[in-house]
Specification:
Distance between the termini: 62 Å
Strand content: 25-35%
Shape: elongated
Helix content: 10-25%
């Protein structure tokens, strides 16, 4: 029978040194956590906002009682103090949604076609005003038929949705109660990578659960997240049911609203995301004042980041940052009226630098509809500017269209393109332009894609129309074949592509040439 090996003996001197080191590390961690002074749940550096009425975010209150804590237990006491003061403000939400019934029921009563069915769910929220105003996620309470709010003292009250903002996944719920414990919103811009934070909520329905971790990253942008949001990433355990609950620093301030996790299993894997409190404060203000409507500015452009290949193709000077206009919406859109077009690189709005597509979207969204801004941009390498009168962003944007049968290919021009790009191509004819609802009735249309080719790797598909290959305009299949033949092996080439009436830029890796 095998036995566990006997650990080597540790001398008294080494044991004493190890204990001293542990004590020093613990004390340093505590000092870092408490150096700015632990403050109460209702206290901290968050500025008070006078919104008017009973929805106003209240003033901060007294500090946390951790002044007498010392030694290795200080960090534990800090966590316990935050939990003790934050928990009363955290609520559990039981919701019922009416969802459309699909398919045919296997139950004997009725065929199950059409109609709706009730779907139950749960989540978390945090009281931010003693008059019963609760911050949570839109995906928790949006489109609900009923909300039950369970308070930390066990009371169950009916909740009413004050307003929602699907774009940031935030919502405000109101309950008929006053004098409630509440949490103050801190300044999320001041939070730093490595800071201790605590998540509070009801994961898997387990109410008043506290988990601790650190801020893994700030300013995190996610493909599946809001275009207006830079998230706080944390390794504090966040699971289904935590949504809408607060992420709190050791001063007892809410610095985020927990909203997303990355997980292959559906549970916590130490990668969670919270909406920063400064964004939450902004949306809360908009939803609880005036008509409760969220309005955002709108240019009417689709944009993408400027990379090296695009910069070279568009004659952009080295080191320039900006957002590339991939497409401009209908002629009635603000950008079109101002003369902006596909291929322009926007570098500033009213003097504020634009460094990426995300920063452009966020900057335009912050402009009040009806305002006029000065847009600086590059076109063919030359600096220009124009004035854009910003419109209100439509609530539902998207490109509609159906897949169309592509035209027959041009075998002669397809040979080079098939060999080097992995696509078959044909000329765009008036009939093809009408069939594919093209805005530019010329170019080379892709009639087939090799799944292993470089075009497929870049996301091109049948029915896409190529209008530009690198610096060369493409008005026919022959133009594309000629441009492909002259391309430098091992380089990157930017293609301007139209898909069902929408223009964009695609970067192709030509390593296989």
């Amino acid at each position: 029978m095998s036995e566990f090996p006997t650990p080597p003996a540790v001398s008294p001197e080494r044991r004493k040194a190890r204990h001293s080191l542990i004590g020093i590390v613990a004390t340093v961690l505590v000092a870092l956590a408490l150096v700015v002074g632990a403050k109460a749940l209702n206290g901290g550096a968050a500025a008070a906002f006078s919104l008017g009425g009973d929805a106003a975010l209240p003033e901060s209150g007294a500090p946390l009682d951790v002044a007498n804590a010392s030694g290795p237990e200080s960090l534990s006491i800090a966590f316990a103090s935050v939990a003790k003061t934050v928990s009363p403000a955290v609520v559990h939400l039981n919701i019922v949604k009416e969802v459309r019934r699909t398919g045919i029921s296997v139950f004997p009563f009725g065929n199950g076609e059409g109609g709706t069915m009730r779907q139950r769910g749960s989540g978390s929220g945090v009281i931010v005003n003693p008059n019963g105003y609760i911050l949570t996620n839109n995906h928790v309470v949006g489109n609900t038929s009923s909300i039950e709010v369970k308070l930390s003292d066990g009371r169950r009250l009916k909740g009413t949705v004050v307003g929602t903002d699907p774009q940031t996944d935030l919502a405000v719920v109101k309950i008929d109660a006053t004098g409630l414990p509440y949490a103050s919103l801190g300044n999320s811009d001041a939070i730093q990578q490595g800071e201790w934070v605590v998540a509070v909520g009801s994961p898997f329905g387990l109410e008043q659960t506290i988990t601790a971790g650190i801020v893994s990253a700030t300013g995190r942008q996610l493909p599946a997240g809001s275009p207006y949001e830079s998230y706080i990433q944390t390794d504090a355990s966040i699971n289904p049911g935590n949504s809408g609950g607060p992420l709190v620093n050791l001063r007892g301030e809410v610095v985020g609203i927990n909203t997303l996790i990355f997980s292959e299993s559906g549970g916590s894997q130490g990668i969670g995301f919270a909406i920063p409190s400064n964004m939450a404060r902004k949306i809360y203000t908009a939803l609880t004042t005036g008509d409760g409507k969220i309005t955002r500015g709108y240019f009417g452009v689709s944009v993408r980041d400027l990379d090296d290949a695009l910069a070279e193709s568009l004659l952009v000077p080295e080191g320039t940052k900006g957002a590339v206009v991939a497409d401009v919406a209908a002629e009635s859109a603000p950008a079109a009226k101002a003369g902006l077009r596909s291929g322009d690189v926007i570098t500033a709005i009213d003097g504020k630098p634009i460094e990426s597509a995300r920063s452009l979207t966020s900057s335009v969204a912050d402009v009040a509809p009806g305002s006029t801004v000065t847009v600086e941009f590059l076109r063919d390498g030359k600096r220009q500017s124009t004035s854009v009168t910003v419109a209100e962003r439509p609530r539902n944007l998207g490109v509609s269209g159906q897949e169309e049968e592509p035209p027959a290919e041009d075998e002669g021009s397809s040979q080079a393109s098939r060999a080097k790009l992995g696509v078959n191509i044909a000329d765009v004819t008036p009939e093809v332009a009408a069939q594919l609802k093209l805005r530019e009735a010329k170019g080379a249309v892709i009639t087939g894609v090799d799944p292993s080719g470089v075009a497929a790797q870049a996301g091109l598909q049948s029915g896409d129309v190529i209008h530009r290959f690198g610096k060369s305009a493409v008005t026919s299949a022959a133009d594309l074949a000629k441009a492909v033949e002259s391309a430098t092996p091992g380089s990157q080439v930017v293609l301007q592509v139209e898909r069902r009436g929408t223009l964009t830029f695609v970067t192709i890796e030509l390593d296989g040439l």
